[in-house]
């Protein structure tokens, strides 16, 4: 084989081919707006030629909002015209959701999907979509506050937890928002809650049935402002693991209520007997004059303002006897006691600061021994 020197190699035509620069392959870049618009076209093709609507389906709702945004921007209509095979951006076309009503609340603003629709590279820097769930959650719970008189509802939660544990109640997936009614229990984000009340139903601006709810939470908070549809969206949110708690059959049949059954497990209050320390001779002349009342919690707090209340004859009082009420309704026991001593009741009239006359009840002319004996007798019969 002949040997080649460097000059032979460099002058060889094959060498020129080896060192020739390979032309770079041009990569055709697709405008992202074309891709997003093509999503709308594909959706229409897959849905019988119908445009996306403002439905509860998040994909359809997103495409609806995107198409609406394109139709409102002349530069996008011009840009996408060449791939608009369904003539969706024709200015003569019906504009989706023509309502231009100004938002009336933060809920209205956050429910406008245009807030979360990217429009260009600058807008994408302010893209809030990743925080949408957090924003909505913060708005829904912004009115949750410490529940007033939570002691009234705490026994309900204790009872329901006990009934869940013994199998009387079940925790099941949420079926439909139509079953969100007063007296029912749900679990939202791991917290047991009680639907205390549902306000008057109305049709919102989107055509959906809505209402204001009053919810009591097991952690001692309440929300009086949350809307039915907002609450329902929480329960159906997979990330919040919403659940509903089944009802007790006797409650469903109207034979019992959860409030009545709660009385069987907790202290419901206190029956108390007090003696008046009034300096009014028309009152102090009675040696066996007693008031029999009921207090849901502290008796001391109940009588702390006695000097300013007609029911205590506008005078301080002294506690002489108390009974803790358990296993039945304290209010019912109080009513039974008052009925027993009906013939012992004293009609008392006391003047108020503005000159009016008050006639406080629940004062009885009777010995303390007879009161104690009768109340103990009533309690025994109620427990039998």
Explain this structure to me?
This protein is of the alpha+beta class. It folds into three domains: 32-136, no CATH class; 143-261, no CATH class; 266-383, no CATH class. The protein contains 16 helices and 15 strands. The chain has helices spanning 6-11, 13-19, 32-46, 58-71, 74-80, 106-110, 121-124, 132-140, 154-165, 228-236, 249-252, 258-262, 281-284, 299-303, 330-340, 368-383; strands at 145-146, 171-173, 185-188, 191-198, 202-203, 209-210, 213-217, 221-223, 243-245, 267-276, 289-295, 317-326, 350-351, 357-358, 363-365. Strands 1-8-7-4-3-9-2 form a seven-stranded antiparallel beta sheet, sandwiched between helices. Strand 13 and strand 14 (357-358) form a beta hairpin. Helix 3 (32-46) packs across helix 4 (58-71) and helix 15 (330-340) crosses helix 16. The chain is elongated, with a radius of gyration of 37 Å. Mean pLDDT is 78; it is low at 91-100 and 115-142.
Structure summarized in a few sentences:
With 384 residues, the protein is α+β, with helices and mostly antiparallel strands. Helix content is 35%, strand content 17%.
Fold topology:
Layout: H1 6-11, H2 13-19, H3 32-46, H4 58-71, H5 74-80, H6 106-110, H7 121-124, H8 132-140, E1 145-146, H9 154-165, E2 171-173, E3 185-188, E4 191-198, E5 202-203, E6 209-210, E7 213-217, E8 221-223, H10 228-236, E9 243-245, H11 249-252, H12 258-262, E10 267-276, H13 281-284, E11 289-295, H14 299-303, E12 317-326, H15 330-340, E13 350-351, E14 357-358, E15 363-365, H16 368-383
Antiparallel strand pairs: 1-8, 2-9, 3-4, 3-9, 4-7, 5-6, 7-8, 10-11, 10-12, 11-15, 13-14
Protein name: T5orf172 domain-containing protein
Organism: Trichococcus ilyis
Pfam family, one: MUG113
């Amino acid at each position: 084989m002949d040997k080649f020197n460097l000059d032979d190699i460099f002058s060889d035509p094959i060498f020129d081919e080896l060192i020739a620069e390979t032309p770079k392959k041009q990569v055709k870049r697709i405008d992202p707006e074309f891709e997003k618009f093509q999503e709308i076209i594909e959706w229409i093709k897959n849905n019988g030629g119908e445009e996306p609507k403002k439905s509860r389906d998040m994909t359809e709702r997103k495409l609806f909002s995107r198409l609406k945004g394109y139709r409102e921007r002349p530069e996008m209509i011009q840009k996408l015209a060449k791939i608009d095979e369904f003539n969706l951006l024709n200015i003569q076309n019906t504009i989706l959701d023509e309502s231009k009503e100004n938002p009336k609340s933060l809920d209205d603003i956050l429910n406008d999907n245009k807030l979360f629709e990217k429009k260009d590279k600058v807008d994408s820097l302010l893209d809030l979509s990743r925080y949408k769930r957090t924003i909505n959650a913060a708005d829904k719970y912004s009115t949750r506050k410490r529940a007033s008189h939570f002691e009234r509802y705490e026994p309900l939660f204790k009872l329901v937890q006990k009934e869940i544990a013994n199998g009387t109640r079940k925790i099941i997936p949420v079926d439909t928002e139509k079953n969100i009614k007063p007296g029912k229990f749900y679990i939202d984000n791991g917290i047991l809650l009680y639907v205390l009340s549902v306000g008057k139903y109305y049709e919102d601006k989107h055509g959906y049935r809505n209402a204001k709810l009053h919810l009591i939470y097991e952690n001692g908070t309440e929300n009086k402002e949350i809307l039915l549809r907002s609450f329902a969206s929480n329960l159906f949110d997979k990330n919040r693991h919403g659940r509903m708690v089944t009802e007790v059959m006797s409650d469903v049949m109207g034979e019992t209520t959860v409030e009545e059954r709660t009385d069987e497990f907790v202290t419901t209050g206190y029956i108390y007997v007090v003696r008046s320390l009034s300096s009014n001779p028309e009152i102090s002349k009675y040696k066996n004059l007693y008031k029999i009342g009921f207090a849901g919690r502290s008796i001391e707090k109940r009588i702390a303002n006695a000097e300013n209340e007609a029911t205590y004859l506008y005078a301080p009082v002294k506690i002489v006897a108390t009974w803790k009420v358990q296993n039945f309704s304290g209010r019912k026991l109080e009513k039974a006691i008052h009925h027993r001593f009906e013939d012992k009741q004293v009609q008392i009239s006391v003047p108020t600061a503005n000159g009016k006359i008050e006639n406080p009840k629940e004062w009885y002319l009777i010995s303390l021994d007879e009161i104690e004996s009768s109340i103990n007798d009533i309690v025994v019969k109620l427990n039998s």
